[in-house]
Design a protein that fits this description.
Elements: H1 3-12, E1 31-38, E2 42-49, H2 52-61, E3 73-79, E4 88-98, E5 103-107
Antiparallel strand pairs: 1-2, 1-3, 3-4, 4-5
């Protein structure tokens, strides 16, 4: 199975998340890496934000056209600043591009990405 067909299958299997994401209140300052994902082009991290709210606003508004007609999935990951190993907390907030609505919508983590953390480049 090619990378593109595997990715297309993953995108087709996403499940909407009613009510959107509700991140836990961090016990210390966090950073939030926003990474867009495409099957043939790969991943890229267009933003790292100081708050979940700012990162999510970029995604939901498609600021700077982060979709670019090809990044069907997007994930926001929480990071502990100034940490070496273990800087990823494992908190992820997933979104999929809705072609009909022309925007990213919150989704459950795709099964194909279960157990994977550290998408930011």
């Amino acid at each position: 199975m090619s990378l593109d067909s595997h990715f297309d299958k993953t995108v087709a299997s996403v499940r909407p998340l009613c009510g959107g994401h509700m991140p836990p209140a961090p016990e210390r300052p966090m950073l939030y890496a926003l990474t867009t994902i495409s099957g043939s082009i790969g991943d890229r991290t267009p933003a790292i934000c100081r708050s979940f709210e700012r990162a999510e606003a970029i995604v939901l508004r498609n600021e700077g056209d982060i979709w670019e007609t090809c990044y069907s999935l997007c994930v926001i990951e929480s990071l502990i600043p100034d940490a070496l190993y273990g800087s990823l907390r494992g908190e992820q907030y997933w979104y999929a591009w809705d072609l009909e609505g022309g925007q990213y919508v919150p989704i459950h983590k795709p099964e194909a990405y279960e157990g994977i953390v550290g998408f930011c480049e």
